Amino acid sequence: EKGGFEHFMLKEIFEQPQTIFDSFRGRLDAEQHRITLSGLDAIQDRLLAARRIIIVACGTSWHAGLLAEYLIEELCRINVEVEYASEFRYRNPIVGPEDVIIAVSQSGETADTLVALENAKQQGATIFGVVNVVGSSIARMADAGAYTHAGPEIGVASTKAFTAQVIVLQLFALKLALLKGTISNDRFSKLVEGLHAVPSQVEWILTNELENIKAIAAKYKDASDFLYLGRGYNFPIALEGALKLKEISYIHAEGYPAAEMKHGPIALVDETLPVVFVATKDPYYDKIISNMQEIKARKGRLIAVVSEGDEVGATLAEDVMVVPEVDEIIAPLLSVIPLQLLSYYIGIERGVDVDKPRNLAKSVTVE
Ligand code: F6R
């Protein structure tokens, strides 16, 4: 059942070229430059009139939601809020018929997310579900939606469900941008072609970086803390990298916006602290390089996810994990892969039961 892999988590990491493809099968036409999302069509009028979009989720799904905030605001020019379901539901939020809520959930059963949505629906909001489990409670209560098609995820730590959520949210943002006229045909076509290439690029990382990442894991396995830093579209990936490490290795880790580190966390940096930069080539590249220099000057141990061919980043860091260079909007789908593998192998090095880490449940149906 683990298909020759030692753990479900590793199997699910390796399934991603396929699950990403499955998530855009029938939706993304890279030749005609077309995106079909019938769930979006169903609430198209509400979306075009929406005062704002509110994304509600927990955990890893919340990280996919944070990415979607950046995407939808940039591409569709609609105001987006991202909410932790547990906070949103208890604080008596201002919600009404002009709001569209996107619910992101692998299981479709997370109690806080479900109740937050029920409350918002009662106040007249439209609910769009980005859910993996077909027929789950959240999928049934949503007005419309798009399934993620990642297949059953058994490992407690979410991997392939996350990349599938990101794909669906990218398709959603691109399609909505086209309908709103906020994206040029040229940029749209380039991004559609870019998405189409992702499965083979993920495959490339899994093939070329595996042994390197295993060695990095063995080298840093005894660290007691990790810091993960990123900017822009790579900031949610820094958060996700840190969460994955906590869950699977029991090492304390924090994700932070790279520039925000100067406002506190930099005090933690010394020669024992591994600092993982998500530093792929994007418009903030020079800024992140200078953040790396700041950490290096304080003797932090620099590990970086860099774009293929980036000599500057590669020279600056003590250890690097390489990913193909792509548009910044697509980059998170690639930069998360080495971080999933790093957590997995550090967990293995430390003898953690990675498929069932202590204290965690696959779906949190208590509040
Ligand atoms: C992390 C993880 C959790 C879930 C969270 C939400 O690896 O699996 O943080 O992402 O419990 O679960 P869903 O997406 O089922 O609502």
Care to describe what's here?
The protein has 367 residues and is an alpha/beta fold. Helix content is 48%, strand content 16%. It has 16 helices and twelve strands. The chain has helices at residues 8-14, 16-24, 38-42, 44-49, 59-76, 85-90, 111-122, 137-141, 160-180, 185-196, 198-208, 210-220, 235-249, 285-297, 311-316, 331-349; strands spanning 28-29, 34-35, 52-57, 80-84, 99-105, 126-131, 144-145, 225-230, 252-257, 274-278, 301-307, 319-323. The strands form three sheets. Strands 4-3-5-6-7 form a five-stranded parallel β-sheet, sandwiched between helices. Helix 13 (235-249) links the parallel strand 8 (225-230) and strand 9 (252-257). Helix 5 packs antiparallel against helix 13 (235-249) and helix 12 packs across helix 16. The radius of gyration is 20 Å and the shape is globular. The two termini are 32 Å apart. The model has no long low-confidence stretch (mean pLDDT 96).
